[in-house]
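[Meeting: bench + compute handoff]

Bench side (C.D.) handed over the final construct sequence. Compute side (W.E.) agreed to return the predicted structure before the next meeting so the bench team could plan truncations. Sequence as handed over:
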Amino acid sequence: MIERWLERYLNKQHTKNQRNQLGLFSGKVGLFSNLALFSIKMSAGLISGSVSIIGDAINSLADCASSILTLFGFHIAAKPADKQHPYGHERSEYITGLVVSLGILFVGFQFLLNSIQRIMDPAALNTTTLVFVLLVISIIIKVVQGYFYRKVGKKIHSNAIDAAAQDSFNDVYTTLVVLGASVVETIFGWRIDGYAGVFIALYILYNGISIIRESIDDLLGKGPTEKQINEIKHFLDYYTSIIGYHDLLMHHYGPNKTFATIHIEIDDSWSLTEAHRVIDAIEKDFKEYLGVELVCHLDPIAIKSEEQTTIYQQVKRILQSYELNLKFHDFRVEEDEGLSTIQFDIVVPDNIEKTNQELLEAIKKDIAENIGTFEVEIEFDRIYLLK
């Protein structure tokens, strides 16, 4: 039901940045719903005299601050690029997600301390039917709120909204502990709210740390997923006129700001105009269909030279003899004033312990013994996504 409502809401938007509009709307929903929750829980806490319920109410008040931060984050993210920030301001969402996560940690730690204190100094709860009804209503509101955040976060890929969703469900667990402990104490007289609170507090802390790690990864520059890389490979395979591709690098400046560079191998007999036409088409297609600002580097390959093809096959056999799963590209043989130079790049798997210098010396030695006298220039690739 919520998902269908969101679709209708999006369809009513007439701005170019629907994602930002939905993020701002989520912040407003969170702010008003958390204010309502604070009022409900505080009323229940004052009626029952329960410190834990009052503490839960204060937690909802803290969530109001998180909602304000979410609104602020999306407001900043919507700002256009400027001279100081040429790639825009979308990374501010990552900062918002980090701050919200720190808030989750703080609440979890405080709840842990309160739970330990409750174990050491048990206190009787004075609950009434009205208190139970108010707590149940607050749980229902939080479940709906968390489900709403989760749907929005999934639709717009926002860490800030994802963090708010997790915080909402954490609040559900917290209130359930208070409610469950009240029921058990009312029926059996057992005072277990402190022990259950410790378990929930540890769970909240675990989720807070997980979200912080994800936010920090985004701020530092997280690489694409295996699914995204496979999508790019599948996309490039449609261009049958190019020989190959390698050395992909991707840079994220926000959920909707992705820049990439890649090396495209082409026939060296192409004219500059023909090469530009093909590369320009690839860059435009990446922008239109994948939302990626791609810059292509041309690598001309002499596929029609019999001499270079022969040397290429010899080098390939040498590398295969090492049984290290070494792959190479950008192969060419240059002639300059009687000096022949073999140039190529080698892709080194992550599990190879040999240094670049050790590999270079071994390859130079084998080329001299098996092919002839050549200068050898090798670039070693260890960080690229597509190799």
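W.E. noted at the follow-up: DSSP finds eleven helices and six strands in the chain. C.D. will use this when planning the next construct.
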